[in-house]
Specification:
Blueprint: E1 6-7, E2 11-15, H1 21-29, H2 31-37, H3 45-54, E3 62-68, E4 76-84, E5 89-96, H4 105-120, E6 125-131, H5 135-143, E7 147-158, E8 161-171, H6 172-179
Parallel strand pairs: 5-6
Antiparallel strand pairs: 1-2, 2-3, 3-4, 4-5, 6-8, 7-8
Length: 180
């Protein structure tokens, strides 16, 4: 699904493009980012280049680059995937480059994507998974209105240990209540 751009006060979301491959490679190669998101899949540089060049036209998902300060620099990515128009649901994923974590960019990026999901696409539910070991992310999602829906025990790795995955979701009426 092609979305041109979403503008907030702090960030601008725009489609991912081929020129983002270097920054995306940095993001998917970052050990701490991989640990925080539970990413275990290995990517090649070529896969990342191909992905960045083609993902804007993918069906059933919206992949956006997070940019800020009037710059077009790729600071991270936010994705609305598994879009199901019959059930009116989707999954949300956010990954920021190491230097841009904890600066508020992700918070506004999520708010913009939730606006797209509920106000433009007419979805009823957006879900996400967060590792139980990532308390900062869980708190961020709760502050944006996400509710803990369940826990998958030992469903991910955190280094040499297993950790739980917390399933969270937000419904359209909960989103609208946070906007009121």
């Amino acid at each position: 699904m092609i979305v041109e751009a979403l503008q907030g006060e702090l960030v601008r979301l725009r489609p991912i493009k081929a020129e983002d491959a270097d920054a995306m490679w940095e993001s998917v190669s970052d050990p701490e980012g991989r640990r925080l998101t539970g990413t275990t899949r290995e990517f090649t540089r070529r896969q990342i280049e191909e992905w960045c060049a083609t993902v804007a036209g993918a069906v059933g998902r919206v992949d956006m680059a997070v940019t800020a300060g009037g710059s077009d620099e790729f600071l991270g990515e936010i994705v609305l995937n598994e879009i199901d128009h019959v059930v009116r649901s989707a999954n949300l994923r956010l990954a920021m480059r190491p230097a841009y974590r904890g600066r508020g960019y992700g918070t506004e990026a999520i708010s913009l994507m939730l606006g797209l999901a509920f106000e433009t696409l007419g979805l009823h539910r957006v879900s996400l998974d967060v590792l139980a070991t990532n308390a900062r992310a869980k708190s961020l999602y709760e502050n944006l209105g996400f509710v803990v829906e369940g826990r998958q025990r030992d469903a991910a790795r955190d280094g040499d240990r297993f950790c739980d995955v917390i399933v969270m979701g937000i419904l359209d009426e909960e989103y609208r209540a946070t906007k009121a």
